[in-house]
Amino acid sequence: MEIGNLSTVLVWAAASSYTIALVAFSIDLARLADDPTRARGRKAVGIAMSTTILGLLLHGAGIVLRGIAAGRAPWANMYEFTLVGSFVAVAVFLVTQVRREVRFLGAIITGLAVLALGIALSVFYIAADGVQPALQSYWLLIHVSVATIAAGILTVAFAASVLQLLKDSRESGSPAVQPRFFRFLDALPTPRELEALAFRLNAIGFVLWTFTLIAGAIWAEHAWGRYWGWDPKEVWTFVVWVVYASYLHARTTRGWTGRRAAYFVLVGYACVLFNFTGVNLLFAGKHAYSGRPS
Amino acid sequence: MSAVAGAVVAPRLGLRGWLRWIWRQLTSMRTALLLLMLLAVAAVPGSVLPQRAQSPERVAQYLRENPGTGRWLDRFSLFDVYAGPWFAAIYLLLFISLVGCIIPRIGVHARAVRAAPPRVPRQFERFPVHESLTVDASPEEVIDAAVRALRGPWRALPRFRVRAGEGPGETRTIAAERGYLRETGNLVFHVALVGLLIAVAAGQFFSYRGQAIVVEGHGFANAVVDYDTFQPGTGFQPTSLVPFSLTLEKFTARFTTTGQPRDFQADVRVREPGRAEAGGTIRVNEPLLVGGAKVYLQGNGYAPNIEVRDAAGKLAFAGPVPFLPQDTVYTSRGVIKVPDVSTGQQLGFVGFLLPTAVVDTSGARSVYPQPLSPLLVLSVFTGDLGLDSGVPQNVYQLDSSRMKRLVGADGKPVTLFIEPGQTVQLPDGRGSLTFTALPRYVALDLRRDPALPWILVFALAALAGVTVSLFTPRRRLWVRVHRVDGRTVVAAAALARGDDLGLSAEVERVLVAIRGTGSAESSADGPTATA
Fold first, then answer.
1. What is the CATH architecture assignment of B116-179+473-529?
2. ipTM for the assembly
């Protein structure tokens, strides 16, 4: 079998593994909902964690083989960005779990990973190949990898902020989150703790995003003869940066902490997703690297 | 209802009062936050609507297709968003707000850095982390051990700023604080952003950028007249152009079998004043540095070498004509204008160059970007090219308003198909055209921006500042020691700003050092940590 095909098979296997994890994480959350103070062993979550780790290993192997098949860094088109971005999100989730109890994020993270891999394989897939001259630079290694890692970290932070908002709504008695389905929220940490977790991750994401901007400007200076040209991708990278900067400011402004700060995370992450999908597919710009024929 | 005599009268602010109020509003965090959000929103239309700075031709097309709305969008400078007045208004207000916020904070921080850590509080129990233990060592030994642990191994950059003091009676205390770098980083970040804005503005003022098309075997001299287009900054001096010249010796393009570009390389020779002639290469990601400017390879194409003889058989035109590639297989469009005919009407040719031509019933088209079987497909016009009217003309377009397209004997327009080395006769004895060779050309971008190093320095300073600011924990830690029954009772408490996972560990580190002084036992309340 060709290396490129083997990579694709591994990505399929990773997606299947994450799907099992997603189911197991959901079962765990449902059981927690039935009995939030449960001290008994959580069997489902054990299965979920091991299938997530297995998925991550398959996923990582798939990415490495993709790089070997293409003979370059495996992040040069949308299929590969999605592959690496979701890999980072799952990896960040597992690494965070070493230091903090964040298994409650598992369902959202594996859910997003399954969705991302599904879209990557069915919509964005193109065969492994070399790249056009504008992409032949060591900056591809630096700029794109850091951007993708930042997106992965911001994904996990987004998951935490969503739970923070849901939990906060439930605690303040909002009728929309009172049905039985939302009882798992009672087993989660307090909104303050979720917000603190989201902040730590967003802070890392913001620093990496700042680096992405600077590295991108340096590369643009080399490749296109200007460090900044308001290309759609540059505009949206800037918008993302400003929205997350607003988030950091909101946290220190009276009256804008807590819920309101979390809304910035939702807007910011929506911008990250749009920057990644919409800008590549809708706008004519210099960053038209989806690798798909227009 | 009786008239209310004592209606509420607002205190009069006066002009100074108003100005102070406006300044306070502008420099408040709330305003900064709103301006930031506004900046994000204001940047969006520039990615949705075509922009003059990036693609003037798409703006023109938009205005043609939507004359009504287009005119109004243009009035609000939505085709020049990033140079528009309201975008500038937002970021200038934001930077004024930033400066107004940062300058007082620099003063406050400068005093805080020199100040001693805050006094030891009376009650330790109310702090999120507090702990106590009893040891055999003397209070002096305990204080020494704690101070050493707090300061850390580096004298020049102590971990904590420590102040040892004495409480009531024989009580000894330590007040310690760390995390001054947090605010330092924050201030560096914001000052660096101001520096970045100034550096970018200065760069725009002094920079220049020019484009030139250079055909293989031909040269280019760095003078304003030799550029095809030239955009100087407001402060640009033409005398600052270093008079170097450059010759394109060879251009190499590699494509995959499916026609995807893989490598472009221009081999040039450069002559700089006061230096020996030297060779150099320019590739897409590797600009050539010459005479303080960077030379970028921004495009390439074919420039067929054409010779046109007029009806009298005299050479009326000879030279390469750059054709502009229209697609990935280099179907290239071009115009040949022949004004200098010795007899008869002026000649104009419009058409395509197909690098790898396939001709079938549906017409001629190119299937591959490399020149495997080149073919020129041209229509012929005669009449007045309009070059003497004084109105500047686009060299890539033929103004056919005073010209006539030649038709053959069958009444159909004449189309010439010419391969390299071939000569074709024009109809009605109007002359001949020879396609002698097919050199390539490169589109070069030359640019000099003296502010680049500064922009990089400020950007990196901002990155370093924000990193330090976001990841430096701000912690206060206190220790109180007193003697009870010949033993030493130690109490410690710590406070952090915001969520701080490492706070308990920090207290534990100090207590481990204290325990190291002699046999110890922890008190019943043990370590506590509440969020």
1. 2-Layer Sandwich (3.30)
2. 0.88
